Structure formats: C-alpha cells, structure tokens
Amino acid sequence: MQLRGLMQWRKSFGKGLSLNARHEQTHQITFGELREQGCRGVLVYCADYRCSHSVAMSADAWPDDLRLSDIEDQFTCTACGKRGADVRPDFNWNKQPVRQH
C-alpha cells in the first residue's frame, strides 16, 4: 500500500470506519465493531494539536453499541486541561510498549 493511500485510510478510519477511503459516506465505528476486528484498545489524543498528549486505554468498559466518537467530548486532558479528545482504535493494544530512554 502506498503511503498516501495509507494516510487517507488512517484519516478516514480516525473519523469513522471506512473500508474504502474514497467513499463519500463514512460509517462511525462502534466499540462492538472494533472488538469484532480483534481490537480491544483505543488511543485517546488531546483535542489540542499543540499539546499532543495521548494515552492508550482498554476499550472493554464501553458497550458494543456506543460509537468511539460518542465519548470524545467526555475526556479532559491531564496535561493541558483542554476538554475533548480524538479517540482512535489501537491496533497494537496487545503489544508491550517500547521503552524510550
């Protein structure tokens, strides 16, 4: 897959599940659909792009019919205090984090 195609796919996936990034209409992914794909975690990014604080969380606490986008306004960044977040699937939820020195 070309980098440009990957970036378009990721951008559309972050806003809602789209099997084809060129579709005009996107489907907002639910936690149930996320789990059906074998993904059990989410990445929560601060809504302020200048802050760029993020956290990885388990997605197990939310019900299957809830959309990822439904919980975005419930977060408050612990680093800058801004309300709101960008919630995305964490496809590496089951991997050990890489230690940075």
Give me some keywords for this one:
101 residues; alpha+beta; three-stranded antiparallel sheet; 3 strands; 16% strand; disordered N terminus
Question: How many structurally independent domains?
Answer: 1
**Mean of residue pLDDT?**
78
**Overall outline:** globular
Low-confidence stretches: 1-24
Strand content: 15-25%
Q: Tally the beta strands.
A: 3
Report on this model:
The chain is built from 2 helices and 3 strands; from the N terminus they run ααβββ. The chain is globular, with a radius of gyration of 14 Å. Residues 1-24 have low confidence and may be disordered. A 3-stranded antiparallel sheet has the order 2-1-3. Strand 1 and strand 2 (54-58) form a beta hairpin. Helix content is 19%, strand content 16%. By secondary structure, it is an alpha+beta fold. The protein has one domain (3-89).
SSE blueprint and pairings:
Elements: H1 3-15, H2 31-36, E1 41-46, E2 54-58, E3 85-89
Antiparallel strand pairs: 1-2, 1-3
Question: How would you summarize what this structure contains?
Answer:
By secondary structure, the protein is an alpha+beta fold. Helices cover 19% and strands 16% of the residues.
